[in-house]
Amino acid sequence: MEKFIAQATRFVRDEDGISAIEYGLLAALIALAIVGAVGTLGTNLSTIFTNVAGSV
């Protein structure tokens, strides 16, 4: 039983996995921001090219 408690205590205090999860969440947030920016930019460029093509 003492061995189990010692392992559980060590598991709770271990922060290596937490850092990996934080980096993963940060990467996902950055990717989401990039996808949103590219989507907005693509829509704006499409409108601009449509206006230019209509005026030619």
What does this entry show, briefly?
The protein is mainly alpha-helical.
Distance N terminus to C terminus?
82 Å
What is the chain-wise order of helices and strands?
Answer: HH
Largest sheet descriptor: none
Percent strand:
under 5%
Counting DSSP E segments of at least 2 residues, the number of strands comes to 0
Structural class: mainly alpha
Helix fraction? Answer: over 70%
- The shape, in one word, is rod-shaped
Rg value: 25 Å
- Count, helices: 2
Keywords: Membrane, Transmembrane, Transmembrane helix
Protein name: Flp family type IVb pilin
Transmembrane segments: 20-41
What does this structure look like?
The chain crosses the membrane at residues 20-41. Keywords: Membrane, Transmembrane, Transmembrane helix. This is Flp family type IVb pilin. InterPro entries: Flp_Fap. The chain is 93% helix and 0% strand. By secondary structure, the chain is mainly α. The protein contains two helices and no strands. The mean pLDDT is 88.
